[in-house]
Structure formats: structure tokens, C-alpha cells
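If you are new to this repository, start here. Below is one unmodified record pulled from the training split, so you can see the exact layout before writing a loader.
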Amino acid sequence: MIRYAARAVPWGLLGTGAGLMIGLLLLVERWPYTLWPLQGIAVGLLAATVVWCYPEPAAALVDTLPRGLFWRTTARSAGALAVVLLWLIAVRETRTGYFGHATDVAWQGIALVVAAAGFLTWQRSRGSDAPARAVSAAIVGIATCIALARPSADVVPIFPYTAGDDWSTSRVLWSSLPVLVLIGATVPARSARGGRRGEAPERPSGRAGRTR
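And here is the target side for that same chain:
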């Protein structure tokens, strides 16, 4: 499994993404009031980096190999765990810039990583090659938009700002994200299996269906 992870995971790309992420957190620590939007962008960059662990461009080929999807996903998750570990260390070392809510900032990253990895794994289970480029770009774009524009921040505090903001509601929202992704991935699959089980077998017609 270690040898597979060493070959299959794009470690260079993960290192680049992790370096940029750490750089953003250092800037937030230095100028928290001025550069706070970079905190949300760093969360998006974390998840966008991790999703590159899971795509399989040759999906049609590897799905025929003895090693199943669960085994391959577990092996590839070594890269995701490494990046998440760097995230936790970086948040801890820059904790003075988060208005006393370093734990919440760390959880934002973990929740988005779990949701993104779950979505990519669900895509692979459906036979898709899990397009990391599109998913990664979407995550960074959405996180950047929310961090900069802060739409409906009073009602939906995705990236709270300063100690007086609504961190409790934000914590609930972030905790709900992985759960919603999991439900969204499993319910359609179960419905499809249930529909197939409920289908009545075809009856033979014509002379082939007559008994002598």
C-alpha cells in the first residue's frame, strides 16, 4: 500500500498547495484584521489540494484490477492525511491570529476536506475518473467568493470575523457539511439499488412463453 501511495499520489503538487496554504495562514497571523479573508481562502486551498489525491484518469482500466476501490482510496488517503496534518500544525503555530478560535478554523479545514474527499470517492464509485481539476477550481473559487464578499454573513456565518462574530452557528454549519455530502452520496445509490430489486422480471412472450 505504501508503494502504491508513493506512485499514485502527486506529492509535488500536494507540497506546493500546502506551502501556499501555510503562507496564507502566516499572513493572517501577521495582519488578522486586514487580511482575514485569506483565512477562508486557505480553507478552500486545503480541500482543493487534497482532492488531487483521489482522481484516477485510467478509471476504466484500474477498476478491472484485483485491488478494489476501497483499498486504492485508503492508500491514496495517505496524501490527504499528510496535508491535513500540516494544516493542523500550521493553525496551531499561527493560532494568535484567529481571535481565540483556532480550533474552529482547524475544524473548517477538516470538514471541507472530508466533504470533498467523500464527493470524489462517490464519483469514483459511479465509474467516473473523479475530475480533480474541475472540483479543485470550484472549491477555491467558491471559498474565495465567500471569504471576500461574505454574502449573508449575519445569517450564514461561513467564515466568521473577529471574536464577536457568530462562531457557534458557523461550527454547526461546518459540522453539517460532511453529513450532508454523505447523505447526498448514499441516498441516490440506495434508491437505485432498491429500484432494480423492485423491477419485475420480464415475461416470455409468443410461442417461447407457451408450455406444451
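Two things worth knowing about this chain: The chain has eight helices and no strands. Residues 191-202, 207-212 have pLDDT under 50 and may be disordered.
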